[in-house]
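## Example record

The block below lists the input lines for one assembly entry, exactly as stored, with component labels intact.
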Amino acid sequence: MSCLQGAAIMRGSRPPTNDTRPLSGENMSMPAIPSPASKPRLRPRLDQLKRADRIYGHVFDAILEQRLPPGTKLSEEALGEIFGVSRTVIRKTLLRLAHEGVISVRHHHGAMVATPSAEDARQILEARRVAELAIVRQATRMITREQITELQDLVAEERASFERGDRGTGIRLSGEFHMLLALVANNAPLAHFVRGLISQTSLIISQYEVPGSNICSYDEHAQLIKVIRGGGEEQAVRAMDAHLAHIGERLNLGAEKASTDLREVFAHIVNGPGRQRARSAAAAGAGEKKRT
Amino acid sequence: MSCLQGAAIMRGSRPPTNDTRPLSGENMSMPAIPSPASKPRLRPRLDQLKRADRIYGHVFDAILEQRLPPGTKLSEEALGEIFGVSRTVIRKTLLRLAHEGVISVRHHHGAMVATPSAEDARQILEARRVAELAIVRQATRMITREQITELQDLVAEERASFERGDRGTGIRLSGEFHMLLALVANNAPLAHFVRGLISQTSLIISQYEVPGSNICSYDEHAQLIKVIRGGGEEQAVRAMDAHLAHIGERLNLGAEKASTDLREVFAHIVNGPGRQRARSAAAAGAGEKKRT
DNA sequence: TCCTATCAAATTGTATCCAGTTTGGCCGTT
DNA sequence: AACGGCCAAACTGGATACAATTTGATAGGA
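Predicted structure tokens for the full assembly:
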């Protein structure tokens, strides 16, 4: 596992729903992502964030660093007790995480860490490809010398973290690399989109990565910087494409994990012998995605 | 204005944060968007949605159809009274709308319909271009004859709505066209992303469209279908690119609207003669986007 | 012994209540 | 008369209390 998770940059720079500027007439509720021009301020001290944001950050990090593996139940009461707040704040946090796709929430069933299917994984990686190729192309056009230095510093940190065995920080920084690149491209919606995809990629990796492949990708990041600095758009796009492809190659998406969608598994059965309750399942599934 | 707003398909098919499937082992909290293969069920009756979803839908539609113009204050108490629920439910709804970028929420100031800046608009349209070009390419590869028929029916409805003067429905259907295309491409994250961008485009149009340009785009949609049916990916991409470009051309993004970011307007002033409170503004603006 | 139905514990969803913040108005001072 | 500060009303943020739903367990019957 390597190079595709990210946490801090995304969390810190985005006091999400209720930050904002106090005296502005214009206003875009798009998550406030600082442009690279103004000292991105990657990791604002957690202390000075609002409680809800702090909790969000902690849970987010825990998920990305896989201390909370996919499928883990996230009880509102338990979380509230842990962080010393009422369920109100926890619910707000969970709603945000759900919206970003890292947890799934079911009516009257609570929240759990998302367990993307192989098909989900395929779609997410493809979406990342679409977004990040556009980002790297734009970034190659716009990047300043200062920003190149920032990226290089980031990769240096990333490498240092991995080399001194601090895998957690390494994973985080490797995600931040992709985020910082997105900020360079100066497109807030795209950056926000990629941020979510990166975090979901983390879940995918923890589920589908083949055991042996513990290759870290800071060297690919360094290579990417070189190409971007060179200014060749198409070359940069190809480099990013290859980088993302390598991520996909380390996954085993061929065989779906054991636990898949039950209704799909038993789709051929006309009407199960089960209790009448089976009906409610079908009804609840009305507006839901159904691939194939 | 035409062809870029959308409401129903997105709302209806997406009992957002707390829908989900009841008996599935796999689970992806990505918004559940039905695939085109299974009768998309574009407009499930509002009656059978949960209250929170119903309210969300009503507000969402009102914003997209510009019955709630940008800048409108959305008081929790007022909304709660209108829909006959407590503020709790309203807050949940507002959080969701904020996540999707159609409203902006400020700490202790409440929610208001978003007023994207010209720069926001530029970024949103560019993001749409990135996403929709990829979508149309993929859709051209995968589309079935059935899906082509669905798209044609949709455009027919769209045209009929406009021709009988039902502009509201027309606007909705014209957005649904883009959404349906995204569903054909069979990539849930991309479809979700585009959904948000489409709704934000609606806000942009209501702010920046030049008065004269009341051209409706069902003919361009029909043309797009033809090209897609033809199967030429590059041709389809070019057609979509042109279509999106036309949207941008109808906007006046050159001169920022009157009300822009105050801090930017008075940036050249060293330190306003104002009360000490000016400081808090600067502090609150710490983690916020700062273009240029 | 196995199956079914009823019931209770647990947990989420919703409403209400209290606290903190903002904002506009009023009053005193200069 | 104008400016600055104080105060109260309005509204949002958070916590607690109550209602609804799920789910596992237990008792009854075939």
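The beta strands of chain A are 73-74, 103-106, 110-113. The radius of gyration of chain A is 20 Å.
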